Amino acid sequence: MILGKKIGAAVLSFALVLSLLVLPAGAAGEIGVTIDGTSVLYDDGYGRPFLDSAGRTQVPFRLTMESFGCAVYWNNETRTAVAEKDGTRVEVPIGAPYLLVNGKRMEMDTTAQIVDTRTYLPIRPVMEAFGAYVTWDNANRLVVIKTGSSLLRVHFLDVGQGDCILIDCGETEVLIDGGNNGAGDEVVSYLTPYIDGKLDYLIATHPDADHVGGLDAVLEAFEVGEVIDSGRKSDTDTYKDYWAAVQAEGCTISYGEDRIIPLSSLAALSILETGNDWEDSNDCSVVAQLTCGNVQVLFTGDMSQQVETKLLPLFGDIDVLKVSHHGSDTASCAEFLSVVKPEYAVISYGLDNAYHHPAGETLQRLFDVGATVYGTGKSGSIVLTTDGWTYSFNTSQALTAADAGV
C-alpha cells in the first residue's frame, strides 16, 4: 500500500509511516487496534500485537478477525489460518511470504507466525485483502482500520490497451469508459460485486473503440441511471453498438457540459467541458475531476497536449492524474504537469501493445515533476482507496524508464 503525501511537509514523514505500518524494532509501548472506531480488546489470554523482525505489526489472529466480523478457521494439515467474510476468503499459511485471496496469491514482505502457541497475522495485508483501509496513528501507537461507506475507491481496471475506471463510494457508482469489445464480459464480471441496484452514471469519454467497446455489455447487464457522452459520433460498428445500447436503455443522456455531480457527503465529480468541435475525437474527451475531502483525482480520457494547454485555466493542483491516451507521446505536456503537479499518476495500457505505450518521453515528464507512476500493464487492476484525507494504492510496482514502450 502506498499513501498519498500532498498534505504538507509536516505530514509527509507521517504519511510514509502510514504507508508501511512499520515502527522501529523494539519501540516502546503497547500497540492498539481500532476497527471503525471500536477498540479491539487484547489481553494476555488472546495475545497482544507486536512488531516482528521486519518491523511489521503482527496481531492475534482469532480475536482480530472475529472483531472484524469474519468466520475463522485453522487448517492443521497445511498450517494455514483462514478468515471468511462477505464472499471473500483469505488464507494465510504460517511462515510463507504470501496470502491467498479467493485462491489468488498476493505477496507479502513478512510472514504469519506462531508465538507461544498463538497464531499471529501481519495486519495490513490481511485487512487490505478484505478491502479495508489501514493507517497508523503514530501519536497513539494505534492501527486504525476503516471499512464501508467511510471510504471511496477508484478502480483502474486492467482491460489491456484501453480505459475503464470505476468510482465507488458506497452510495454512488460511476463508470468511466469500458475498454475494447473483447473486454465487455470481463468488465461486467469485475463490476458485479460493486453495483448495488444500478450503475448511477456511465461516462463515455469519446467514441474510440478502446473506450466504448465494452459499454454495450455493461448497459445490457446493469440498469444505468445516466449516460454522459462527449457528443462526438462515429461510424464504426463498435460505436454503433454502444449507441444502440444507450438508446435501448432509455436512461437520461447528457453531453459533457460543466456540472458538479454529488457522490456522497464528502465526494463530488466535476465534469469539465472541453467542447466536441476538435478535429481529433481524442480531444473531445469528457474530462472529470473527483474531489473527496482533500483528495483530488483528474481523469483526462485521451485529450492531447493542445487541449491541455488551451484549457489550463480549468486545472489546478491535484493528487492523482489518470494520464491521457495511455501515456502516448501526445499526453501530459510539461506546462500542464507544472500546473496540476500530481503526486501519483496512473497509465492504462496493454503490455507489449502495438502502439509502444507508454512513451518514454511522457514517463520522463511525469518523473520530472516528482510523480510516482503506476501502470495497469505492469500491476494489473489498480485500486486507489481514500477516506478524504489520506489515500493509498494496492500496488507499489512503480513504472521506471525501462517500462517505456519500444
Automatic annotation (TrEMBL):
UniProt entry keywords in alphabetical sequence: Hydrolase, Signal
Gene Ontology MF: a single term: hydrolase activity
Domain of life: Bacteria
Coiled-coil regions listed in the entry: none
UniProt cross-references to Pfam families, sorted A to Z: Cu_amine_oxidN1 (PF07833), Lactamase_B (PF00753)
Presence of keyword S-adenosyl-L-methionine: no
Segment forming the signal sequence: 1-27
Gene3D superfamilies on file: Copper amine oxidase-like, N-terminal domain (3.30.457.10), Ribonuclease Z/Hydroxyacylglutathione hydrolase-like (3.60.15.10)
PANTHER family associated with the record: BETA-LACTAMASE DOMAIN PROTEIN, DNA INTERNALIZATION/COMPETENCE PROTEIN COMEC/REC2
Protein name: MBL fold metallo-hydrolase
